[in-house]
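User: I'm preparing a small set of examples for a lab meeting where we compare how different chains pack in three dimensions. I only have the primary sequence for this one, and I'd like the structure in token form so I can line it up with the others. Please keep the answer compact; I'll paste it straight into my notes.
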Amino acid sequence: MNKFFRGISFLFLFFSFLSPLRAQSDDFGLDFSLEAQKKLSKSWSLSLEGELRTRDNTKTVDRWSAGLGLDYKVTKWLKASAGYTFLYDNNEKISYFDGTDDEVLDGDVDEGDPKKLAKYWAPRHRFNVSLTFDKKLIGDFKFSLRERWQYTWRPEYTVDERWSYFDNAYDGKEKTYSGKGKSVLRSRLQVEYDKKGLTLTPYANVEFFNAWSLQKTRFNVGLDWKVAKQHTLGVFYRYQTVRNDDDDNEPNRHMIGLGYKFKF
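Assistant: Understood. Below is the structure token output for the 264-residue chain.
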């Protein structure tokens, strides 16, 4: 029991570490997820997951997704995974005036001012492969490292018109956004208190997103509650910082997540 309370204390310390960072964030969202997992054999398991996210201080649905995953237990301490996720995103793309625009040359606007805005829903297709190493190193504390390669394809999409900030009206012109792919290496280091027979599992992790440079960092602290043999409820707090992710144009963000997992 003392080890359990030490685990809870660790989570509070981790949360306190995030406090100065959270003050810099300019958005807040919620994350809801449902997952079903089927054990196919001693080594193989299959999972199906659905997720819904919000942004703009929970006022806007950011995206929903559905994914299929396959896990293989290579050894007691090593797991290999592969998966596919279909994402449907609520996009907001803003273009900005540059030095060659007539409005800038005429002195009507300044370079860098917002020019046009497009709002639209569009799909993305995401594939991933992962290796996860985990081992109890200090008592009932389990440490894990997950390395995941992720490829996301965004198909070409055409919007009917965009909002012009300069004219204060829709421009009535089609705009096509080219299809593009992106590869990201996601590295996650996690520690959790995993005591046999205990229904509560607190954890904390940090995850780095790299695509030739560090683009995002996620700090997570959470708690999984095994309500029954097949049912688990989870809650987490996330703080995400964004540095060079020009594709998604995301702000730094707080997030509260709620999840339910069913095993059969």
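A couple of notes for your slides: The helical segments are 2-22, 102-105. Residues 18-23 have pLDDT under 50 and may be disordered.

User: Perfect, thanks.
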